[in-house]
Amino acid sequence: MSYRASIAALILLTSVAPLSNAADAESGKELYHEVEIERTIRGIEYTDANCVTCHEASFYQRSDRKVTTYAKLEAFVEGCNTNLDVGWFPEDVSDVAAYLNREYYKFEK
């Protein structure tokens, strides 16, 4: 491969690579609303617990919320994923964080 072809390939790869890592808010919306797990939450047994079981829209709009950056948002979503054994892959966690950010938080990434 010539020097020019190598440079062109490198430029193409570096310009496309970030797109493949971009979180998909629409996919995150589906994941957020479709998850169902069996859990006891606050003493109540659920067979179809989901994100909204604990997190109503007002939860995300509180003035005293703990999530203050996009990085913290992703960390909190991962916390729910891990603690509740939801089973999302890392890209799913990123997608759900992107959805919540688009709908509620509006953080710069």
Total number of domains: 1
Task: Output the number of helix runs.
Answer: 6
Query: Residue ranges: pLDDT <50 for 5 or more in a row?
Result: 15-20
Report the structural category.
mainly alpha
Order of helices and strands: HHEEHHHH
Shape summary: globular
- Rounded to an integer in angstroms, the radius of gyration calculated over CA atoms is 18 Å
Distance between the termini: 37 Å
Strand portion = 5-15%
Major sheet size, sense and barrel closure: 2 strands, antiparallel
Organism: Neptuniibacter caesariensis
Keywords: Signal
Signal peptide: 1-22
InterPro entries: Cyt_c-like_dom_sf (IPR036909)
Concise synopsis of the structure shown:
With 109 residues, the protein is mainly alpha-helical.
Structural write-up:
The chain contains six helices and two strands. By secondary structure, the protein is mainly alpha-helical. The chain has one domain. Strands 1-2 form a two-stranded antiparallel ribbon. A hairpin with a 2-residue loop joins strand 1 and strand 2 (44-49). Helix 2 packs across helix 6 (90-105) and helix 5 (70-83) crosses helix 6 (90-105). The model is unreliable at 15-20 (pLDDT under 50).
Please outline the helices and strands:
Blueprint: H1 3-20, H2 25-34, E1 37-41, E2 44-49, H3 51-54, H4 57-60, H5 70-83, H6 90-105
Antiparallel strand pairs: 1-2
Helix pairs in contact: 2-6, 5-6
What keywords describe this structure?
mainly alpha, two-stranded antiparallel ribbon, 2 strands, 10% strand, 109 residues
